């Protein structure tokens, strides 16, 4: 480690939230959070207030992603500051409520850490999603979790892209972390996926408890996949897709996609190749919810981030 | 007891391989997709087929998008499950302003493809479906003695070596048969998984496309006079469903399909084998006495129907050689015994 990376003193973490059901048909989070609301023993840690919340109860009740609009895109500054009215989409009203409870976003009162539990139909395995490359606390937590679940792998997706970034429910916290586990169909609960997510939350809470207890975490390096671009399906003039993710690319999340590699297959069997200038690492390949968001997959570049060491101080 | 317990032989009264049953041509065929609007293989196959409008020489092909509203919203259904609306009773329900969309639609489809139980009905309906369960390709039918369907099954099994092909029999009389394919004189659902709802996978799409191609190919050859030799096939006969363990008060599920059962459709389940893993870590086992074959294991749409998995008995079915009935009634060869079958519904009351 270079001397540029030292140990930074950070305020201890006091308030933690665990969000499930931000998308009502992503069943691991819905099930885990309901379980913990009913019996929170498993998520207790000394000195920490940990609050589980079903963020989108109406969508959960209907087992649908959202009712009016995607809650996980709804936490924009405009939405959060809009005057409340009856015509507001349900999820915008809900975003304002959640911001009151766990924010306000950007203020000193906001929750320290917010975990948001998601599933994907993509073959992403366990993935941790970060919104900043400079959050030492989050990077150290991610490093801890990766080591704890090894040899099972855990990828880290970094979305710091000015255009592709979006206003997530967790973004109202000081340290937001997305937990994304797949592949799992919407509306389905798979035991292995459920247990993987449960284990990640356990290790994350262990980390926070250790940190609060005074443990010093040395500077470390974290391999991440940085979102660079999204790729839509080929579509006809009516907006209908005209090709599917190619069998060679399907389920190939995190594997290199090289220029000239098959990317899409038309309905009558022709291949469309990736024509980009350099190798990318695709992920969120064939996520059900992204057809309407014009996204067949997301392209990423591999990067290694360095994190300062961290140590808690208490006031 | 033992492995044989799960299988029962089933033989019809013909026993000679030389007997050929003559059946009317399959002249009017319908392929339906989007009966569930988020089962996308069928939706896209029907869309593509409708663009092509290819003719077929020996039969007419009608393609139908069964539930266009649900397809447009990419949902299974809008008000009620269309594929439960084809019982004789529901098809005869008087329509009012308050009638759910899918019941109105089922009656429209009955007019288009039926009426169910009459001579005007389509000769064959093939209804396309996907499942989140790891079932490979399954033909699902209300009959285990419909020789047309069983020969198509035999043909697919032979010609699709990379995809497991199976036949599931739901023993329900025609009037109570609730799904779309029961409107035709012959009918089956072609169900392929695993695929998440709302997703189109190229491998699954291609398998279904091939399944349809082989089906239509078989029909063309049958109508052209080819004799298809009989033999024996294995059929899975639906026995019962098992629901998830649920909380008594909230009715929420308290366990997931056990990892040892998940994705193991059609692997024989023995008494004592794991079924569920509760959220508190306890394994719930299969309490039945008879080993049975699980299918529709962890199908998304069945949570609300109280079904975690279905169970079937496997049985061997002897199928006769068949050939299309020609107008003049003359058949090939003099030595063969000919058995003529009139048009009828295939109830198979002698089935187990």
TrEMBL record, chain A:
Keywords: Cytoplasm, Hydrolase, Metal-binding, Nucleus, Zinc. One of its GO terms (cellular component) is cytosol. Its EC number is 3.5.1.15. Its main location: cytoplasm. Zn(2+) binds at residues 23, 26, 118. Belongs to the AspA/AstE family. Aspartoacylase subfamily. One of its GO terms (molecular function) is aspartoacylase activity. N-acetyl-L-aspartate binds at residues 65, 180, 290. This is Aspartoacylase. Binds 1 zinc ion per subunit. Residues 13-208 form the Succinylglutamate desuccinylase/Aspartoacylase catalytic domain. It is found in: Cytoplasm; Nucleus.
Automatic annotation (TrEMBL), chain B:
GO terms for cellular component: apical plasma membrane; cytosol. The keyword Ligase does not apply. Coiled coil: none annotated. Belongs to the AspA/AstE family. Aspartoacylase subfamily. This is N-acyl-aromatic-L-amino acid amidohydrolase. InterPro entries: AspA/AstE_fam, Aspartoacylase, AstE_AspA_cat, Aste_AspA_hybrid_dom. PANTHER family: ASPARTOACYLASE, N-ACYL-AROMATIC-L-AMINO ACID AMIDOHYDROLASE (CARBOXYLATE-FORMING). Keywords: Cell membrane, Cytoplasm, Hydrolase, Membrane, Metal-binding, Zinc. The lineage of its organism: Eukaryota, Metazoa, Chordata, Craniata, Vertebrata. It holds the Pfam family AstE_AspA_cat.
